[in-house]
Design a protein that fits this description.
9-stranded parallel β-sheet, globular, binds zinc ion
């Protein structure tokens, strides 16, 4: 058992003082005691700053880290640059990336995400085949597993079903050949990953359905039944683009969420990614079903998707989580800030996400994201509380953004005063993976930042030769 002491820790949605924290041999919290008397602190490891639970990053496509910063110029002269033109450029990376390059890019990304306050990532993985088209899909999946293991990131791998290029299409486009999958092959891939990762810590599995446009109804039903029988989390992209909503209506007569609700019985294992274009009735129905929505504020802004109806969904009592998706940002403090600012800009008022009883806007956002993150990952994660995995962040109390502030305002400043105070130390299942703001071999992982940076640079130079 390990024992830590924190002068300030986030417990039950508020800051507690003088907290004694105990982690059992399995990496779970077994004791959390606020206002611990001085006599009980002997022998505990002193944590150097305010302590927060780690957050689940509920939506990631790791390979897209390789195009962050590379798609910020207009493409064709006079053409409209939107999600679909961005997707063309994203595919140019997707088609060429090898398993070794994917591992190097994902390892650096996961190291950044740890330093950004995420301790578990849900990897929505549809890049199954080799560069030439064929090859064993396990290779790409295991590249992501190795990347997570190298830096100590918790991983929920979501092998993804992608079968056709659009509603009514009979198959994929030539430039989507690496995504090809069938329900049967997906189930074999899930079982293959489970076999290969049985002995590894912090590796879990679920499934994903790319989108309604990418799978036929029979395949959707098959994967839903498979996930239900295995108790696996299920993720699906939905209603991100108005074009997709229009296509869905043209082919089914219903909006995407309406149609999905009619096809499968959603429950707490289901995670609907984006849900940008919805009606109040759809949001109410999602909330009633127990399913959660994964909001990806930085990617939705970067791609010009639209603004998620946070206010309507909160009114419906809906559960949600945060994903960094294409990884144009790698810190959750930025995602929460952007989510709130998009609401302020469109509603022309302040503190939109705060609600009666919440300590502050930042507290309401953070607690919301924690609540949806655990079920997105399929794990008991999201609080410093007995039985939950001991994932936690230690903020740098000497960061300029926190200087001179009352302790109760720490989370508010973390989200709304940037550059944000960095996560000085990060622990996953009670094991330290970040020291002095960086993943480090000295902290106990097998990877050092300079090695990760070197391998990443080599992969980028091979992908994007000058
Ligand atoms: Zn996505």
């Amino acid at each position: 058992m390990k024992t830590f002491f924190a002068e300030q820790a986030w417990i039950n949605g508020a800051w507690a003082r003088d907290v004694l924290l105990q982690v059992d041999a399995a990496g779970r919290w077994c004791g959390v005691q606020a206002d611990a008397p001085v006599a009980q602190r002997a022998g505990a490891t002193l944590l150097s700053g305010p302590v927060l639970p780690g957050l689940v990053n509920a939506h990631s496509h790791a390979f897209q880290r390789a195009i962050a910063g590379l798609t910020e110029r207009q493409g064709v002269a006079g053409g409209v640059d939107d999600f679909w033109s961005w997707r063309e450029r994203m595919y140019s990376a997707a088609l060429r990336i090898t398993p070794e390059q994917l591992e190097a890019i994902a390892a650096l990304l996961y190291a950044e995400l740890l330093a950004g306050g995420y301790t578990q990532v849900c990897e929505f993985h549809y890049l199954h085949h080799g560069v030439a088209g064929a090859a064993d899909p396990l290779q790409m999946s295991l590249a992501l597993v190795r990347a997570a293991q190298r830096v100590g990131m918790g991983l929920t791998l979501l092998p993804t079903l992608y079968m056709r290029s659009g509603f009514g299409a009979s198959g994929l486009r030539e430039d989507q050949r690496r995504f090809a999958c069938t329900p049967e092959r997906l189930m074999r891939l899930v079982e293959g990953v489970q076999r290969q990762t049985q002995a590894l810590d912090q590796i879990h599995i679920g499934v994903a359905i790319h989108s309604l446009r990418a799978v036929a109804p029979a395949a959707l039903h098959e994967i839903a039944a498979f996930a239900q029988s295995g108790g696996l989390p299920v993720h699906i992209h939905i209603a991100e683009q108005t074009q997709e909503v229009q296509d869905c209506i043209a082919h089914t007569g219903q909006r995407p969420i309406e149609w999905l609700l009619q096809q499968v019985a959603l429950d707490a294992r289901w995670n609907l990614v984006h849900a940008t274009h919805t009606t109040p009735d759809e949001l109410q129905a999602v909330s009633t079903s127990g399913a959660a929505i994964v909001i990806c504020p930085s990617t939705e802004a970067n791609l010009g998707d639209g603004v998620f109806d946070y206010t309507g969904y909160a009114r419906a009592g809906g559960r949600w989580s945060i994903g960094s998706d294409s990884h144009v940002t790698r810190a959750w403090s930025e995602e929460l800030r952007l989510l709130e600012y998009s609401l302020r800009l469109t509603q022309r008022r302040r503190n939109v996400a705060a609600h009666d009883g919440s300590a502050s806007t930042a507290a309401a956002l953070f607690e919301g994201a924690l609540a949806g993150g655990g079920s997105a990952s399929g794990l008991a994660l999201g609080a410093i509380a007995a039985g939950q995995r001991a994932d936690f962040l230690v903020l740098d109390a000497t960061a300029p953004a926190l200087l001179g502030l009352p302790a109760e305002q720490t989370l508010d400043a973390l989200v709304f005063s940037s550059p944000s105070a960095p996560c000085q130390e990060v622990f996953v299942a009670g094991r330290q993976v970040v020291r002095q703001g960086l993943v480090s071999a000295a902290a106990g992982t097998g990877a050092s930042w300079p090695e990760l940076a070197r391998a990443y640079t080599q992969a980028m130079q091979a992908l994007w030769p000058r």
